[in-house]
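General statements about sequence and structure are easier to judge against a single worked case. When preparing material for the folding task, we compiled for one chain both its residues and its backbone structure tokens. The amino acid sequence and the backbone structure tokens for this protein are reproduced below:
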Amino acid sequence: MDEALSLARKLAGTHTLSDGELLALIRGRGPETAAFLREAAAKTARSVFGREIYLRGLVEFTNFCRCDCRYCGIRRSNGSARRYRLTPEEILAACREGHALGFRTFVLQGGEDPWWTDERLCAVVSALKGEFPDSAVTLSVGERSRESYARLRAAGADRYLLRHETADPAHYAFLHPPGQTLESRLHCLRDLKELGYQVGAGMMVGSPGQTDECLAADLAFLRDFRPHMVGMGPYLSHPDTPFAGAPDGSAELTLYLLSAVRLLLPQALLPATTALGTALPDGRERGILHGANVVMPNLTPPEQREKYLLYHDKLSAGAECAAGLEELGRRLRAVGYEPVVQRGDSPLMLTGKQS
């Protein structure tokens, strides 16, 4: 038995590997090891979540952003981006539509838009929790102060998605302009966890400058930080960024790492991301078969949805949008899973355990 397959078996049994073993698992990727990881990850996910796939209603409510991340299509310096900002009433209307469809989690995602002050964002969160007390509210609006996170938590926010992007400081500096640091990003993640959020981290696979060592550092960070959610997809380039000519990340490597993360964090909520669905025609389904258990159909108004372009050719129609729920359900059932629209809280929060 080769080293990588031996390590995959160890990971499936113990749910942990050392830093060096994680690197060897990545470097030794091959068909036999990949097949084992896929089967072990799917079995582990079913042991925790059964065959239920949680659906979240995604509202991309602003594509204004003060940041200038070198890989992102809505970066501040992209003068070609068609900017929009939903009004609070438009956000509530989108969530009303979602609630009528059965959604019980709403994900409010946007750039780091200074217009959305604590006062404005807290008002929207409070309105959502007041109108839909049976539903969870997830925020994904980037880096804010601990005080800001505390106010949003007090207003009723349940979860927060903030990808760490890369756990390697030099790689982080390569992907971001001066002033944006890994230290700041990790500080925010620690604040969110201490404030009682269900916290999501995650990274891009195949981003410019990424090495096997970078990916091993990502897995080691996830192993040690133990987030409640992990968002991970292949890097996909955007033509109006400094990395326009960079090759897209490997969807196959993304799936391999998705399985590894499921085995490292058996109780984590793992989305089959839009990026994965964009990279592969059956990316959603393959993500589920590699251990994912969350899908986020899009509730953003159709006239704005195509403007939230973080990368090229981003999916915004068909099974990706809320109107395609029937198609999405058919595709998930075809691979043996059942979509459910309940809150789907992290088992880590429900049990009070972190492992």
Observations:
- DSSP finds 15 helices and nine strands in the chain.
- The chain has a mean pLDDT of 94.
- Residues 50-344 form a domain with the TIM Barrel fold (CATH 3.20.20.70).
- The radius of gyration is 19 Å.
